[in-house]
Amino acid sequence: MTISLSGTALAAAIRAGITGTPARLAIVTATTDEATAWYVRSISAAAAKVGISCEVVETKDVAGTLSELGNDIHGIILATPVPGEVPAAEFAMGIPPTKDVDGANPVSLGRLAAGLPAFAPATAEAVVRLLEHHHIEIAGRRAMIVGRSTVVGKPLAHLLLNRHATVTVAHSRTPDLAAVTREADILIAAAGRAGLIGPDHVRPGAVVIDVGTNPTADGGLVGDVDPAVADRAGALSPVPGGVGPVTTALLLSHTVDAARTAAH
Amino acid sequence: MTISLSGTALAAAIRAGITGTPARLAIVTATTDEATAWYVRSISAAAAKVGISCEVVETKDVAGTLSELGNDIHGIILATPVPGEVPAAEFAMGIPPTKDVDGANPVSLGRLAAGLPAFAPATAEAVVRLLEHHHIEIAGRRAMIVGRSTVVGKPLAHLLLNRHATVTVAHSRTPDLAAVTREADILIAAAGRAGLIGPDHVRPGAVVIDVGTNPTADGGLVGDVDPAVADRAGALSPVPGGVGPVTTALLLSHTVDAARTAAH
Hints:
2 copies of one chain form a homodimer.
Chain A (H helix, E strand, L loop, with lengths): L2 E2 L3 H9 L7 E6 L4 H16 L3 E6 L3 H7 L6 E4 L9 H5 L13 H8 L8 H12 L8 E5 L6 H10 L3 E5 L6 H5 L4 E4 L17 E4 L3 E2 L5 E2 L12 E2 L6 H21 L1
Parallel strand pairs in A: 1-11, 2-3, 2-4, 5-6, 5-7, 7-8, 8-11
Antiparallel strand pairs in A: 9-10
Helix pairs in contact in A: 1-9, 2-9, 6-7, 6-9
């Protein structure tokens, strides 16, 4: 019987800790694609529920907009993708680290890697928080991340290393991925490809965390992990209802942390 | 017959590319320990040979000294350790990224991880350059780093990921280290413990890069790799004469790059 690593109770607990502090969040978006619009709406709705004011700023001039956000804004999220040639991380250099609630500024990632205080990218932190919430031991275990993105795979590697896991990052250029991922005690699928991780990729009894959020033709959401993995894994996080709600709750929690810090 | 992955020819080639540009390097040091003093002298001597002016600034006020370095300084190295409670990486936030020739500022590490232009820590870059110089394929191979330091292990993980290796970072808290490291096609020893990697840790034919520079009682230098590994590895970098000279050459090369950029 596979344990379902739900994130809903943890998300509720995080949200319960953040009410009562006035805070303002800005989401800067330069893209009109539907997935991004959905993401922005879902953050806005979640913010409203805990009394965080959320301003969505649509712009074609990301750098200019970031530089003009007022002092009354406590947290800033840059929605991706950012159209054009300049990488999103380059624009994110314009987010002050104290307001970088999704850890998008490379300085936040570098500080995280160096063991200095910084906001971690919310999705990466959500994975670790979900493991801890379900009392899954990290220290000394083989953790395997499939996906090397700047927003999830790479920062997650640092978070897991800081917690004493032996960490492997695999990706689309890894030969015989299944043989590699079967070494994992804790397997994290963060490649953004529906069904990439099948039963063959999983050692029986391993813990599997599914970070994927791939839209389906009928308007639903599926992860990177094939549902058949449930018969093989010792524990598996659902999509939706696993990493996702924890990520959203952490974004809001970071925003309140930023507001509290700014008030001192 | 094990191939010796010498760094001396590569170091000479790098140095040959950097003469003729006036450049000034500052080494800021707050420590009096002998290993650091040796390191500072060796950089100074190497700089002098290629016509780079090198100023050693001894200080008890690292942050103040870093903020007061003049515009005529092109490259800045902060010698470690920095005594006291504040991590060296926090002080390194005071090195302007354009002058951060040893990639010590967390923003440099973050930019590296995000795939943005930045100076890499010279030792980490030296490992990759040594592999490339000896025509060792990186893409698609299992690379294993033993050691998770901010100055070597972590940035090296990003450099190898960017070159499409499947990367594992192991460390002192990894159980059964030998079983883990035997998976490696390319094994990089960067733990700072003499003789840590023995023949049992190495798959026959694997490439082994020794980053260790451990002082011996008689004033010599040994790596992290037991010499007996030579009978088992397909290729092994010597200590001294492997990663070390390439690291020094890269520090000087970065300084000249910084001077050229500043001139434009």
